[in-house]
Amino acid sequence: MSSAPARSSEPGVTITHPNRAKAVVQATRATVVLLLLASAGLMLIVTVGGWKVLWGAKPIEIGYVIVYLTLAFFAARWNRGVLPVSAVLAVLLLIFALVAGPSWFARDKTGFAQPAINAGLLGVLTLLIVPVQMLLIAFAMRGFRQGWNVEFERREAGPELYGEASPHPA
Questions:
Q1: How many percent of the chain have pLDDT more than 70?
Q2: With contact defined as beta carbons under 8 Å apart, do 107 and 53 qualify?
Q3: Contact 17, 29 (CB under 8 A)
Q4: Residue 166 clears pLDDT 60, i.e. is over it
Q5: Are 150 and 25 in contact (CB under 8 A)?
Q6: What are φ and ψ of residue 12, in 5° steps?
Q7: Which are the contacts of 100, defined by CB distance < 8 A and separation ≥ 6?
Q8: Dist. CA 136–CA 125, nearest whole Å
Q9: Counting CB atoms within 10 angstroms of each CB, which of 33, 76, 108, 125 has the fewest?
Q10: Minimum mean pLDDT among 35-49, 104-118, 130-144, 152-166: which range?
């Protein structure tokens, strides 16, 4: 079973990607895209909800959201190269979320500036990023092993393709 054939720039050549038609590969791709979008959404909620109290982290969080949305776009287009990048960024975000989560809970005490969303809820959302990143790492590495980039070229038979003389000279 292979995916729909695609034409190449060479005449008479059809390229197929046999691994992309498998249900497990399509499910992995959909899961990676969903996890990237969920991560971007959670980061966006935490960023907007804690905007007043986030000082130096605003550009990093906005950058992460943009990068994750870009990675989701390319993963949806079967680009296998974004999978290891997604996994590495997920490891970094996992570490940041593990460190930042408890600090949101510490803001529930008096003397701290209060964010737009309850600090306890922001702490829960930040800690929710951790399992999402663990799943993203697992599924990105699973997708990397599935060989999304494997392709086969099939050449159509014809004398002009193989350098043979045409049976009907012009």
A1: 78
A2: yes
A3: no
A4: no
A5: no
A6: 85, 10
A7: 126
A8: 16
A9: 108
A10: 152-166
Give this prediction's pTM.
0.78
Check: CB of residue 54 under 8 Å from CB of residue 47.
yes
91-96, long-range: CB < 8 A, 24+ apart: 91/133, 91/137, 93/39, 93/43, 93/64, 93/129, 93/133, 94/129, 94/130, 94/133, 94/134, 94/137
The SS3 of residue 43 is helix
pLDDT, mean over the chain: 82
Looking up tokens 């045409």 gives 166
Q: Which amino acid is at 26?
A: Q
State how far the Cα of 77 lies from the Cα of 87, in Å rounded to an integer: 18
SS3 15: strand
10: which DSSP letter? Answer: S
How far is 163 from 56, CA to CA, in rounded Å?
A: 64
Residues in the chain, overall count: 170
Q: pLDDT > 90: what percent of the chain?
A: 41
Q: What are 84's two structure tokens? A: 């290891």
Asked whether residue 95 carries a pLDDT value surpassing 80, the answer given is: yes
